Amino acid sequence: SKNISVALVGNPNSGKTTLFNYASGSKERVGNYAGVTIDAKEGRFRQNDFSFRISDLPGTYSITEYSPEELFVRNHIAERKPDVVVNVVDASNLERNLYLTTQLIDMNIKVVIALNMYDELQQKDVKFDYKRLGEMIGIPIVPTVASKGKGLKELFNKIIEVHEERDPIVRHIHINYGADIEQAISTIQTEIKKDETRNKNYSTRYLSIKLLEDDKNTQELLKSNTNYEDVLKVANDEIGRLERLLGDKSETLIADAKYGFIAGALKQTYKPGAQTRRENS
Ligand code: GDP
Ligand code: MG
Ligand code: K
């Protein structure tokens, strides 16, 4: 049988552990609890001819800020290189959950979105064209109700398709950060690419965006580049240029652009109802 490694990534309480338990038959604790160590729970699952090695990663709202959980998730993706990242998204909290998705898009990796808590969305009077959203962002979206095991067969079939590059909607989009930021990204990318021996675990676009966010961990990561000092100087010059030009902190400008992208995509695909359906009526 063929092996596929899968990492579950998503906000806290999006249902990652529930999905993990259902698929792997394990009994990890679900829900909020304090004092957990930061690690990945590993489990196995079989479907058809495939054997999946699944990692349940710590919940994070982003992979930008310097917290041990976020760093753990980021390093797991870049260094362990799961074949497919499953971004578990809480369907009743789309705007906030999709922020992390924009960062996965920057990383240029294979992603499938599990649109979890789909039951909660169905109880509301909303229309959400998730297929269209998936086409727009180049990432397939599969509705799931992890607590009932619903949609998981479809989810794992989609993981196989994406892994084997058989899903025509998959493509790597660039979030458009606007002309000024795009110019800065491109300038930094050019500098990073001058070192042929650089760490190729990360795309140069991702690294450049992270440098514009003044991400200390990414600065550390680039220390092994032969032109490290030049890269940092170019990045700092670009941060200064953007902040003078646009009058805000560079990392705020990037976050705003991500939220703008999400809002724009949801505006075209998500129609909230006038009211939520009354129970038992
Ligand atoms: P994690 O923090 O991402 O690992 O989330 P958990 O797996 O701990 O789930 C958080 C809560 O959501 C738990 O109470 C689950 O029972 C519940 N839950 C998980 N999936 C679903 C779902 O599809 N629908 C609903 N309604 N609840 C779910
Ligand atoms: Mg969990
Ligand atoms: K809930």
From TrEMBL:
<feature type="binding site">
    <location>
        <position position="24"/>
    </location>
    <ligand>
        <name>Mg(2+)</name>
    </ligand>
</feature>
<feature type="binding site">
    <location>
        <position position="21"/>
    </location>
    <ligand>
        <name>Mg(2+)</name>
    </ligand>
</feature>
<feature type="binding site">
    <location>
        <begin position="10"/>
        <end position="17"/>
    </location>
    <ligand>
        <name>GTP</name>
    </ligand>
</feature>
<feature type="binding site">
    <location>
        <begin position="35"/>
        <end position="39"/>
    </location>
    <ligand>
        <name>GTP</name>
    </ligand>
</feature>
<comment type="function">
    <text>Probable transporter of a GTP-driven Fe(2+) uptake system.</text>
</comment>
<feature type="binding site">
    <location>
        <position position="25"/>
    </location>
    <ligand>
        <name>Mg(2+)</name>
    </ligand>
</feature>
<feature type="domain" description="FeoB-type G">
    <location>
        <begin position="3"/>
        <end position="165"/>
    </location>
</feature>
<comment type="similarity">
    <text>Belongs to the TRAFAC class TrmE-Era-EngA-EngB-Septin-like GTPase superfamily. FeoB GTPase (TC 9.A.8) family.</text>
</comment>
<protein>
    <recommendedName>
        <fullName>Ferrous iron transport protein B</fullName>
    </recommendedName>
</protein>
<feature type="binding site">
    <location>
        <begin position="56"/>
        <end position="59"/>
    </location>
    <ligand>
        <name>GTP</name>
    </ligand>
</feature>
<feature type="binding site">
    <location>
        <begin position="116"/>
        <end position="119"/>
    </location>
    <ligand>
        <name>GTP</name>
    </ligand>
</feature>
